[in-house]
Amino acid sequence: MIKIIIERRIMPGLEEEYEQAAREAMRESLGARGFVGGESLVELGHSDRRLMITKWRDLRAWKEWYTSETRARVMQQLMPLLTEEERIRIYEPASH
Length: 96
Known about the structure:
Elements: E1 2-9, H1 15-30, E2 35-43, E3 46-56, H2 59-66, H3 69-78, E4 87-91
Antiparallel strand pairs: 1-3, 1-4, 2-3
Organism: Halomonas shengliensis
Keywords: Monooxygenase, Oxidoreductase
GO molecular function: monooxygenase activity
């Protein structure tokens, strides 16, 4: 199991449009093979900063989604609403 952390900054005033596009992106990812779950968070006091935390079965499942036509399509809706490129980090459980 891996977790993908995605940080996004939204252009001021476009939060509502972003929410709609992000909901659509999350809906699309629900159908992706290997998608386990996810949540979307807003930074306290900074409505333009969002954090997506998604769980995937493995790295291959994430890469399949990341390079999919479906994700490319939903990102076409999201990208114009952002002030900068999204930052993506991939985490795995620490081995004990």
